[in-house]
Amino acid sequence: MDATQLRRAIARTPLAPVAAFPKRLARVARHDAKVLRISARWLVTSREHHNYTYELTKLSRHHLAWFVSVVCDRPVQQVRGWLDEIESDQALRQHIERATAGAARRGLADKHVHYARRVGWYAIVRATRPAHVVETGVDKGLGTCVLASALLRNAQEGHPGRVTSLDINPEAGYLAASEPWSEVVDLVIGDSIASIGALDRPVDLFLHDSDHSRAHEKREFDAVEPKLAPGAILLTDNVTSTNVLAEHAERTGRRFLAYRESPANHWYPGDGIGVAW
Ligand SMILES: C[S@@+](CC[C@H](N)C(=O)[O-])C[C@H]1O[C@@H](n2cnc3c(N)ncnc32)[C@H](O)[C@@H]1O
């Protein structure tokens, strides 16, 4: 009996779990050691305490390009072009790095810019050319800058648009307070539900990224529904935690898809983009 035949014979006996234990232990230990290594490095090198930033893995970026291509019905090569466009926008990158270095809360922010799934938001804005984007939850304003950047490029091509960004924290949005990005940003401070209720222009693209409780996410989608322009697109940053947008899509007769991002070299498992259209 050779080794393979012996292994197969043991696999059919009650001894199988005991025989498999060392291999299982080695696998999980290798995985956990990698997470521990990455976590320890992050504790020393990063300053972020929430809303973590990172790059996507190469594979995750490929999947994001296809996700946007399917949702927006645009060729995947064109979507890849938009991902390259935001990633190679040196003016935006330098602005964010400078504004971060000069911010009062710089002790809780990383020096280098990592957009993660926000490059997907950029590509969706480039593909759909919305006149009015609404983003709930601004934090430092990284996503607002990305959205504003896409709107500025659209405007250069004859399709102007603005983003209304809503946050309850009066200190939010400092990254998006400089020109040219601020030229297309309307920052509104207050609870997002009240601010959505006060919107006086139809919304073409809505992004939930504020209070990520299930109840609040649902309240936002319910509140924005009567404000939407025909054919509006709804996005959620909360798709790895709740099914709220999928349920909203089903109730309102829309399609739904979810993309789950994979951070490169980060302990955080990542968020995603949920879309209803
Ligand atoms: C995850 S951060 C937003 C991240 C941002 N979109 C980005 O791209 O980096 C969540 C933000 O939601 C805000 N927030 C929490 N509850 C809110 C509410 N009820 N109304 C408006 N904003 C709220 C917080 O102040 C925080 O800045």
From TrEMBL:
It comes from the Bacteria. One of its GO terms (molecular function) is methyltransferase activity. SUPFAM superfamilies: S-adenosyl-L-methionine-dependent methyltransferases. One of its GO terms (biological process) is methylation. Keywords: Methyltransferase, Transferase. InterPro entries: SAM-dependent_MTases_sf (IPR029063). This is Putative O-methyltransferase YrrM. It comes from Micromonospora jinlongensis. The lineage of its organism: Bacteria, Bacillati, Actinomycetota, Actinomycetes, Micromonosporales.
